[in-house]
Amino acid sequence: MNRFMSTKYSAVAFNLGMLVLRIMLGLLLVSHGYDKMVHFAALKNKFYNFMSLGPTISLSLIIFAEFFCGIFLILGLFTRLVTIPIFIAMSVVVFMVSHGHIFAEGERGAIFLAATFAIILCGPGKISVDGMLGK
């Protein structure tokens, strides 16, 4: 029982936790990005217009962040670098699209944003391509 109440952790537990967080977040992001990519033609004219870039460019940027950066996140390759577009995309979802309503329609984006922030702070862990390369 004392083990479950302890604040101590092992390097193995930390690295395994970061692996699970990276893979789950990446899989969820890739599935969202893939869905947007498949339905690009239907979404391109009605997507959120971020910074007056136009809905087509905004949709392309979110597909890049969710699908392509999500794949790199799963692999743990260039992890902190690829989390920057994801963090920006999820910030837009939470604060602009959902108007900061993190307990209503912005809940999913807020969870993605928090998980991305944790990965930015902690890094990919040793069970990643970055970890194997010694970065």
Summarize the structure.
With 135 residues, the chain is mainly alpha-helical. The protein contains seven helices and no strands. The protein has one domain.
Provide a descriptive summary of the structure in words.
The termini are far apart. The chain has one domain (32-133). The protein has seven helices and no strands. α2 crosses α6 (107-122) and α5 (79-97) runs antiparallel to α6 (107-122). By secondary structure, it is mainly α.
Distance between the termini: 36 Å
Q: What is the typical, i.e. mean, pLDDT?
A: 90
SS content category = mainly alpha
- Compute the number of strand runs: 0
Helical content stands at over 70%
* Count of the separate structural domains: 1
Number of helices: 7
Order of helices and strands: HHHHHHH
Low-confidence stretches: none
Quote the beta fraction. under 5%
Radius of gyration: 16 Å
Write the layout of secondary structure elements.
Elements: H1 2-5, H2 11-38, H3 40-43, H4 55-75, H5 79-97, H6 107-122, H7 129-133
Helix pairs in contact: 2-4, 2-6, 4-5, 5-6
Give a quick set of tags describing it.
about 140 residues; mainly alpha
